[in-house]
Write a structure and sequence with these properties.
The complex is a heterodimer of chains A (about 400) and B (about 240). Chain A contains 11 helices and 16 strands. Chain A has about 400 residues and is of the alpha/beta class. Chain A has 2 domains: about 230 residues, Thiolase/Chalcone synthase (Peroxisomal Thiolase, Chain A, domain 1, 3-Layer(aba) Sandwich); about 160 residues, Peroxisomal Thiolase, Chain A, domain 1. Chain A has an 11-stranded mixed β-sheet with strand order 5-4-6-8-1-9-16-15-10-11-13, with helices on both faces. The longest helix of chain A has 15 residues. Chain A is globular. The two termini of chain A are about 25 Å apart. With about 240 residues, chain B is an alpha+beta fold. Helices cover about 35% and strands about 20% of the residues of chain B. Chain B is built from 8 helices and 8 strands. Classes of the chains: A alpha/beta (about 400), B alpha+beta (about 240). The interface between A and B is large, with 72 and 70 residues. Strand 5 of chain A pairs antiparallel with strand 3 of chain B.
Chain lengths: ~400, ~240
């Protein structure tokens, strides 16, 4: 039976992206609009130098019993998991391992390792030692999380392109409401690789410089990489997932419905599920990829739903488009701004772009510089994710409604 | 977990193209050829030419399942599950990248794991929630579970489609499984005309992981068309139990 949306807690959060490898590192750089994580690389797109938001610190190695899972995607995931390990252990102790589920999102799995393996085979006739089929499986990302943490409940990976990370939280919540889990490790991971870099290049979707969302000069995305994990529980305290809305465009495989109807529907469904009026949304984290098509459709939809006064920003200029991870990463940014409230004020991450507003787009209240807004508790914020295949997912996160 | 009604099903594999063929196969299963593809003549040409084998198989079973149950294909939520997705397409993209050759934009955008979900949405003008997942050898069960989770959050019947291509030649040497190409669609709802069943996770844990002769989707179909009261699917460390009623 369809049931009213049961809110759940995003109890713990771990993340790694171009802005750092802990909440304490990422938060000040996020609200400062720090774009120093975006740098040129010439090793990803054949014959071209493009901007990428890479994770530059050394990553934990994957060896021993887990060696078949060794790939950059899982190294990023391991770095994020370490940040919530204590909470996960507590949950396993409290509920038992079979009651702890895993739902991860990804769109790249171990593709970077596979590219190396295929290059080696072209040169030597053999795959790189240790290359395993599981590195090409999206399910491998979830299996890795279960193997690392000891979670033994339901375990799967969603891969709905750029909405996967948001949908992983939606499915985690649903597993709690179904009663099959008492806690779920949910999040997403995507790593830079030649397949996505050349794929978006082929679609003419890569920007020449840093991405420039909502500008009249916008010319595409720059890619990034990230891993994010949450421990999702039934707790009534802590940052809450208050609502979620999913929809499909029924329009085109790689371009959004230009009217933004699918995006609008996902936003309205999320607000309805949360029981929150659009005027009570304190901030919108835009999908804001910087492609002409996304920003046109999204600004129409966003303006129709929350109007021209609700503060909005895209954080992709800072961390890149992390594809399947983006929905979870942007939920993590919302989680951070809610959990780091200062008195009556919420600090919002800025929308970093060239300032050349596109007059053809409906006006949005873009957060032009690091900004604090008065937001009566309990505050709620909206995060949007729209993927290939016209796959849309919007989340409402908020402070506990007690 | 609460039970669910199975309103209808459709399956496809090479040489097994209609219900009568599947009923006969379920009585006396025989090896399934590794080559073949449905013609999906019902799809507009623009969509059909974008369809690789997995898309063809999944849309074929979707169309037959929807037609036989007389539901409105625009008014369904959907879950698409595949262990390897558009495997041949993904391998061809990897080969191009490894050789430094140009990537085909159409092949890239149709290689995403939710390509079949997207094609279904475009064909059916379906604007509802849709997801795509993978879970290794446990993909069928995970998809069924996500379908229950979808039923709980969307007030619509859920189309659950599961399938896989054969393992491409390039990676066959490192694969420990060799599924035949196959797809199965199940239409699930809270109520309506059909058999009831439920899925639960047996907390007592697995005895042993058995080497499955047939993909889980086909093992499920054999069970559903039999009179056995329950089906156990063991994927260490989990033991899943389907029961009628």
């Amino acid at each position: 039976m369809t049931s009213p949306f049961m809110a759940c807690a995003l109890r713990e959060m771990g993340l790694i992206c171009a802005l750092g490898s802990s909440a304490d590192q990422v938060w000040p750089r996020l609200v400062a609009g720090d774009t120093s994580g975006v740098t040129p690389r010439s090793d990803l797109v054949h014959g071209e130098t493009r901007m990428f938001a890479s994770v530059r610190e050394p990553l934990p190695e994957i060896a021993g019993a887990l060696a078949r899972h060794a790939c950059r995607n899982n190294q990023l995931t391991l770095a994020a998991l370490a940040q919530i390990q204590t909470g996960v252990e507590r949950a396993i102790h409290a509920h038992g391992a079979t009651r702890i589920g895993v739902v991860m999102g990804s769109s790249t799995a171990g593709f970077s390792a596979a590219e190396d393996a295929f290059r080696a085979r072209n040169q030597t006739g053999r795959f790189t030692p240790g290359f395993a089929l599981v590195q090409l499986e999206f399910g491998g990302v979830a299996e890795f999380v279960a193997d690392v943490t000891g979670a033994r409940g339901p375990c799967y990976a969603l891969s709905t392109a750029c909405s996967a990370g948001a949908k992983a939280l939606v499915s985690a919540r649903a597993l709690l409401q179904l009663g099959v889990c008492d806690a779920v490790i949910a999040g997403a991971a995507d790593s830079l690789c030649g397949l996505t870099a050349n794929g978006f290049r082929a679609l003419s979707a890569l920007s020449a410089g840093r991405s420039n969302p909502m500008s009249r000069n916008r010319d595409g995305i720059h890619l990034g990489e990230a891993a994010v994990v949450f421990l999702v529980t039934r707790d009534a305290d802590g940052v809450q997932l208050l609502g979620a809305g999913e929809s499909s465009d029924a329009h085109h495989m790689s371009a959004p419905d230009p009217d933004g109807k699918g995006a609008e529907s996902a936003m309205r469904r999320a607000l309805d599920a949360a029981g929150i009026a659009p005027r009570d949304i304190a901030y919108v984290n835009l999908h804001g990829t910087g492609t002409p098509q996304n920003d046109a459709a999204e600004s129409l939809a966003t303006a129709r739903v929350v109007g021209a006064a609700t503060p909005c920003s895209s954080t992709k200029p800072l961390v890149g488009h992390t594809l399947g991870a983006s929905g979870a990463l942007e939920a993590a940014f919302c989680w951070l701004l809610l959990s780091r409230r200062r008195g009556a004020m919420l600090t919002l991450p800025p929308h970093v772009f060239d300032g050349a507003l596109d007059a053809a787009l409906p006006p949005l209240a873009l957060v032009r510089e690091p900004m604090q807004v008065a937001a009566p508790a309990p505050a709620a914020v909206l995060s949007s994710s729209f993927g290939f295949g016209g796959n849309n997912c919007c989340l409402v996160l908020g402070e506990p409604r007690t | 977990m609460t039970g669910v009604t199975l309103l209808g099903w459709a399956a496809w594999a090479p040489n097994l193209e209609d219900e009568a063929a599947w009923r006969a196969w379920c009585e006396a299963p025989a090896p399934i050829p590794s080559v073949g593809a449905p013609d999906v003549g019902f799809l507009p040409l623009m969509l059909r030419r974008r369809c690789d084998l997995l898309s063809r198989m999944m849309l074929e079973v979707t169309q037959r399942c929807v037609e036989s149950t007389h539901v409105d294909r625009a008014k369904l939520a959907s879950v698409f599950a595949s262990r390897h997705g558009s495997f041949a397409t993904a391998i061809s993209l990897l080969e191009d990248v490894a050789r430094g050759e140009a990537t085909s934009p159409a092949r890239f955008s149709h290689s995403v794991h939710n390509a079949q979900a997207g094609l279904f949405s475009i064909w059916a003008l379906n604007r509802h929630a849709s997801t795509a997942l993978a879970a290794g050898p446990e993909t069928f069960v995970a998809g069924f579970l996500e379908s229950l989770a979808m039923l709980q959050r969307e007030p619509l019947p859920v189309l659950f489609v599961v399938g896989d291509e054969a393992i491409p030649e390039a990676v066959r040497s490192i694969s420990d499984h060799a599924p035949p190409p196959h797809a199965l669609a199940l239409l699930l709802a809270d109520q309506g005309e059909g058999g009831r069943l439920n899925l639960r996770l047996d907390a007592s844990g697995p005895s042993e992981t058995r080497a499955d002769t047939w993909p889980n989707a086909l093992a499920f179909l054999r069970w559903w068309l039999s009179s056995e009261p329950r089906l156990e699917l063991v994927h260490s460390p989990r033991r899943w139990i389907f029961e009628r009623g």
